[in-house]
Amino acid sequence: MTNLLTSLLYEDWVLHALIWLPAAGLTHVLVSSADRARHIAFAWSALVFVLSLGLWWSFSPGDGGFALESSTPWIESWGVSYALGIDGISIFMVLLTTFTSAIAILGSFEYIKTRRKAFYALMLLLQMGVVGVFLATDIFLFYVFFELTLVPMYFIVGIWGGERRIYAAVKFFLYTAVGSLLMLVAILYIYFSSGVDSFAYEAFLNAELTLREQIWLFAAFALAFGIKVPVFPLHTWLPDAHVEAPTPGSVVLAAVLLKMGTYGFMRFLLPFFPGAVQHPTVVMVMLILGVAGIVYAAWVAAVQPDAKKLVAYTSVAHMGFVVIGIFALTLNGLQGGMVVMISHGISTGALFLLLGMMYERRHTRLIEDFGGIGRAAPLFATAFVITALASIGLPGTSGFVGEFLALLGTFETHPVTAIVAATGVVFAAYYMLPMVQRVLFNKLDKPENRTFPDLSRREMVILGPLVALMIWIGVHPAPFLERMEPSVQVVLERVEGARPVPGTAGTPARED
Predict the structure, then answer these.
(1) What CA–CA distance (Å, rounded) separates 260 from 150?
(2) How far apart are CA 73 and CA 63, in angstroms?
(3) Cα–Cα distance for residue pair 398/387, rounded to 1 Å
(4) How far is 107 from 86, CA to CA, in rounded Å?
(5) CA–CA separation, 136 vs 463, rounded Å?
(6) Domain boundary at 215, 240, 275, which?
(7) Mean pLDDT (whole number) for 269-283
(8) CA–CA distance, 148 with 249 (Å, rounded to integer)
(9) 44 and 104 both lie in a single domain
(10) How far apart are CA 242 and CA 254, in angstroms?
């Protein structure tokens, strides 16, 4: 009965509502008083999340294609349409975005003290842009939303960030903008040179491209998405942005903005350029960069004195698992990459929230300034430990499911790569557990930590759903895997159905 009701209610209008309701909320915030801005913003973001939650029951994986599709001509002379759709890949990114946006706004209530109206308006604009990225089925529209997300994030970091906020904001903007412009050139090249008559996703799938063109176009798209992920060595903007961003900005940045890059890999790179994706050199370069990110980021994280910078580097390592899972070109690898994306959004978002709560109480992020606060704040310590264990991939948590599947899928085609990448799991424990020990369980020898307040009711409401999701996905991942499998299989079949290049997934070759 529930499935029938939601199916009847959830027509294509819901996708438009998910994009434009935050815009309505933005307007409401701007015309309200500063004191009410945070509550209004949370109410609108919560409404969007509740509306999106119905997709979990109404969405049927079907044959893996898009559902709830709609298309309205926009720039007819160019074949540009306002076209939206959702499938088993984008549904998880949309739900992750609406959920973490509401959580981040609620988590900012005590953190943001100045220019509240502007801040909450920008948070809703950011939510609108990110949801648009995941729902757009017109390539030009996707690019518009992709670029739109730059603006609010730039101001969130640049206005409400730390001491080096301007440097971090400008660095973030320049890195991402340069990559995006190259992607725009590649999009226009495909439109004007390959015989397509519109910017529709299906039209680009059928573009006639030589292998040489595919490789060059792959490079342009991969640079734009690789910067956003970020893939090593394009990651240097991320630690600065995370450290300087306010807590809600760090949460959204880690939970959803980075996923725009890995989503782009899966949604566009693999199906658009199957010949390039199967080229042995391309595959090996992407796998090496993924493994390098896993190992390098873990080593750098282990020596960070700043807890927030340590967690920032873990994002590079986690996204490395996504990259190797995707370019393993196996069903397990692609599904593992998807689950890592979801798990990372939940666990790392929770870590940034916890660090923000620590900063609100002690006004420091240095690990050495804490110690023994688990005795003073047991609820805080419990949430911190569970989140840290999910981050390092302990069995029974969401992190384990994703990393295991990504490594398993990589092992099927590139066993040596998988073995090297698996060391990252050990390194994760090496950088995360000592930090947990020093912050929570060392001697309570600093007077400031003896009165460390435990979680408030608001903070328990924020962290409770995140912790529950970490455990649910870790214990029972089947509902997630079943919904994503048909769409992931469509992407994989598109790659395998193209003319195989010797020595790749089309014609398997041993790595050793």
Answers:
(1) 12
(2) 26
(3) 10
(4) 29
(5) 31
(6) 275
(7) 89
(8) 16
(9) yes
(10) 8
Encoded tokens for 321: 């698992």
Mean pLDDT of the chain: 86
Shared domain for 440 and 341, answered yes or no, is yes
Rounded to an integer, what distance in angstroms lies between the CA atom of residue 338 and that of residue 488? 9
Judge whether 103 lies within some domain: yes
Do 191 and 144 share a structural domain?
A: yes
Q: What is the pLDDT of residues 327-382, one digit of tens each?
A: 998 999 999 999 999 999 999 999 999 998 888 888 888 888 888 888 888 899 99
pLDDT at residue 504 tops 70: no
Do 161 and 310 share a domain, yes or no? no
Residue 1 three-state SS: coil
Query: How many other C-beta atoms are found inside a 10 Å radius of the C-beta of residue 46?
Result: 18
- The two structure tokens encoding residue 202: 């299906």
Share of the chain above pLDDT 70, in %: 95
The answer to whether the beta carbons of residues 452 and 361 sit under 8 Å apart is yes
402 & 316 share domain: yes
Q: How confident is the model at residue 505 (pLDDT cuts 50, 70, 90)?
A: very low
Element (H, E) at 67: strand 67-75
Q: Is residue 504 part of a domain?
A: no
pTM confidence score: 0.89
pLDDT at 472: 93
pLDDT in tens, 190-212: 988 877 888 888 888 888 888 88
Q: Are residues 251 and 331 in the same domain?
A: no
Are 167 and 221 part of one and the same domain?
A: yes
Tokens standing for residue 59: 């969405």
Would you tell me how many other CB atoms lie within 10 Å of the CB of residue 74?
16
Q: Which domain holds residue 360?
A: 279-497
Interior angle at CA 273, CA 267 and CA 277, nearest 5: 95
The last residue of a domain, from among 229, 254, 275: 275
Q: How many domains does the chain have?
A: 2
Q: Is the separation of the CB atoms in 213 and 274 below 8 Å?
A: no
